[in-house]
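Let us begin with a simple case.
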Amino acid sequence: MGAVHLSTEKLARGFLVCLCLWGLFSLSCAARSGVSKQKFEVKKHLNRLNKPAVKSIQSPDGDVIDCVPISKQPAFDHPFLKDHKIQMKPSYHPEGLFDDSKVSTKSNEKEMHHIPQLWHRYGKCAEGTIPMRRTKEDDVLRASSVKRYGKKKRRSVPLPKSAQPDLINQSGHQHAIAYVEGDKYYGAKATINVWEPKIQQQNEFSLSQIWLLGGSFGQDLNSIEAGWQ
């Protein structure tokens, strides 16, 4: 009876060991499968974002700038912009907004105040192409998910009426803004000077932008944004 009892106990222990090993093996396979799936999604997303370039320029800060044909930029991947005709210059200006002397003066001012980008030291994109910073795998992995990369959270920008300098809201969003409201705007410009912005966590970022907004902060918001992030 003693021998039978020991034999049964050994079998039970052996079964438990096998069960644990099988569980660990399953978890390992699931983890590898999850990593492989994530890498596949990241690669697919990068292929969608990084368009074939006519020319690539290595920037001193480590970025790669791709000169992409203007018609191939990611914005035109949207189904509503299929076969969109690109208008390089406005066909007309609102009456009374500009006259010939003002247009000439503003063109000269633009040339005088032109600030080159760091990568311009090693070349520029030809006419008919646009510069696009090549998105890297690390850029995508810093996002909360692959699908969320490059997208802003809804209502991440406060309503102007509640905006105060250096305000910190419940989500930890720190911001300072200046805004003006009016009837019609045909353009805008701004001088932005930010010195050594600091971040503490990998999911943090700094941005400095000028926006032209139309609609409300609900479903019908349209924005044109320029600056850096």
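The second case is a distinct protein. As before, the sequence precedes its structure tokens.
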Amino acid sequence: MKRLLLPIILLFVGVGGGVGAGLMLGGDDAPASEADDAQGAEDEHAEEDDGHGEDDADDHAGDDGHGEDEDHGEPARVEPAGEGTEYVRINNQFVVPIVRNGAVRSLVVLSLSLEVDTGGSSAVFNYEPRLRDSFLRVMFAHANAGGFDGRFTEAEALAPLRSALREAAQSVLGRGSTYDVLITDITRQDA
């Protein structure tokens, strides 16, 4: 029991420090408003009627196997539209306790990197407290749903976590600047 006390205390101090720093720094909501502006531009474009796509239903009626055996549970990855992307490593690891019957049974430690627009690393570092908070919420929910039980490193088991982490990053940094969240390291230490 004493072996678990120090990691649990460090976990709570780290989470508390991250949340406190996030609240203290606050930041502006520029990425969210940029995402809203981009959505508005897409809506304006959608309202234009150039006849594209009309009367093409007959051309696509054949059974060519398109769409079969696809996983529709994971949202599609946003592809970069600009010059390129860069990968930004989140500085500290994430520690997620696995609680069963009111006791910590194991700890999962993850390292993450983000794929963002070239030059977007400063935004990642500026919003790191918010990103860490969003990522921890996703990881805690995944752990509580049993996502880190059994063969948790299989691709099918990690797909919902990857998708939720990507959505969390895009909600903080904006959909047009964040393309993927990469799990660069994952380990589970059982008690």
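Confidence is low (pLDDT under 50) at residues 27-75. The chain has five helices and four strands.
Keep these points in mind for the review questions at the end of the chapter.
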